[in-house]
Amino acid sequence: MIDFVILGLIFAGSLALLAKASHLTITSIEELVEITGLSEASAGFVILAVMTSIPEMFVAIFSVLQEAPGISVGDILGSNM
Q1: What dihedral angle (degrees, nearest 10) is formed by the CA atoms of 71, 80, 50, 60?
Q2: How sure is the predictor about 68, in pLDDT bands with cuts at 50, 70 and 90?
C-alpha cells in the first residue's frame, strides 16, 4: 500500500514539474517572438524542428563515440520511413 502512495507522490510531483517546465517554455518562446520579430507560427516550427532533431543528434554522437556508425544510419533511415 505504501508503494502506491510513494508512486502517487512521484507522479504528482512529476506532473507539477512538467506543468512548470511547459509554462517556462511557453513564456520563453513568447519572449523570443518579441525579440526576433518572428511570427508565432514560424517560432513554433523552429522549436518543433529543433525538438524533433535532438534525439537523432544524440544517437549520432553516441554511435560515433562507440565506433558503430551503422546505428546512426539505421536511426536516420528509420526516422525517415
Answers
A1: 10
A2: confident
Closest CA to 54 of 71, 34, 79: 79
pTM score of the predicted model:
0.57
Locate the DSSP E strands across the chain: none
Tell me how far apart the alpha carbons of residues 18 and 10 are, in angstroms, rounded to a whole number: 12
Based on its alpha-carbon atoms, the radius of gyration of the chain, rounded to whole angstroms, reads 19
Please check whether residue 48 is in contact with residue 62, taking contact to mean a CB–CB distance below 8 angstroms.
no
Provide the mean pLDDT of the chain: 88
